[in-house]
# Entry
Amino acid sequence: MTVLLVGSVAQAGQSVVERELGGKIPVDAVMLNDPDKEAVAAKFAAARMIVSPAYRAEFPSSPKLEMLHAPNAGLDSIEFDALPPGTRVCNVFEHHIGIGEYVLAGMLRSVIDLDARSRKFKDGLNWEDTPRLGAPTRGELSGKTLLSIGYGTIGQAVAERARPFGVRIEAVTRTPRAMTPKPDKMAGYDSMKQMIGDADFVLIACPLNDETEAMFDVDLIGAMKPSAILINVARGKIVAEKPLYDALAQGRIGGAVLDTWWDYPTTENQNVKPSACPFWDLDNVVMTPHCSGWTDGLIERRFKIVAENARRLFAGEDLINQVFPEL
# Structure
């Protein structure tokens, strides 16, 4: 019985898993689009543990499966009803470092825009940004307010990085409680609309579930101040797609930094637009292909935990980050 790494995300950590297990537990890998369907089915049939960000009913049968390990935090691509009875599900975080840096970069860009200033000066030796010629001042992060929608590992990592810049940290969460770092203000989701109007940056950092899908709707977008920046590193579907596009296209909010989307490619179909709305045509949008946390340090940290859970599974020990069934 094997540990099976399914897909490119899981296989990114194959060398780490193999190194950590030291050959004591067999590790295999498979791509779902492999034309040798019999070989794919045989690998699934032999798997005691599968590492994959998704699990669907159409996957090959895996009767020996005891644990599905997502190599990521999100669980929205897992069809829990399709899992063999008794399968435990674990996830892993560790992406908060890279995402925290990404969010801070987006915030700094909005007030400094170093690349644009550099291009302007290099391309035409244009001095218009210098105070020697009466240039207007730029903004600062100091004194700005960040509102984090959700305050888990990502929201906390952003707060740790933004606060030394003088940023005021506010947060709304499903269950307000003592957290570190302590926000300057914390409330429940029901206070979101009244707090949004004070925020210079609105960070989407909550999980996607039935409660949060399309939660950030036209009313919440409309409550943002005209200069505010929306930053989404959680899931695209938490935000209402068309209302966000309209607000950006019409200049009703200052801009957006978008790393997560409404539509995604697959190995079978890689020519997929991330949205039905042409965000890519808007000058006030920074967009990246869901890569904010994809760092070299992430692979090492995440797959050490995956390997440790494989060791624990085969040794009959308690698992790390078991999310299903809930303990």
